[in-house]
Amino acid sequence: MASVPFMPFLPSLPLPRLSYIHILRRQISSLPHLCQKATITVSKTPTPPPASPAVKPSAQVGLAALPPLPYHVHRTASQKLPIYHLAKRGGNLHQTRIRKIEGNVEKLREEIVAGLALKEETVVINRLTGHIIIKGWYKDNIKRFLEERHF
């Protein structure tokens, strides 16, 4: 006897692509509260407190110690920062474009101007696309700037 699908009017769905599975794993692994496994250990004898470490915990700077930023720059599918060089007007106009910005774009613009010591008028926000456009080629400087902020 042949098996009849539960809902014959619905087509069968294909399996998800492998790249999508990798993206989901990467997103889940970036959330520490989902990755930590709860382990409970019961000890009958009290353990002595650990010796004072050579480096104080306040001196260690981790991701948790950093304040949350009002903006976020998402990476591309190939896990690179979305910073691009553009040459317009026959190659005479050099620009650097930052894409995939979420949150307060104006705050990121202000920090780029201050961090890279650029003039206010050289860094512009395209309100329609949400991109930041900088006059000149600053891809390496901006990449370093964003990596310092753990993007």
From TrEMBL:
Listed InterPro entries: Ribosomal_mL49
Subcellular location field: Mitochondrion
Coarse class of the protein's main subcellular location: mitochondrion
Any one GO biological process: translation
GO function terms (MF aspect): structural constituent of ribosome
Keyword list, A-Z: Mitochondrion, Ribonucleoprotein, Ribosomal protein
UniProt record similarity statement: Belongs to the mitochondrion-specific ribosomal protein mL49 family.
Protein name: Large ribosomal subunit protein mL49
Gene Ontology cellular-component terms listed: mitochondrial large ribosomal subunit
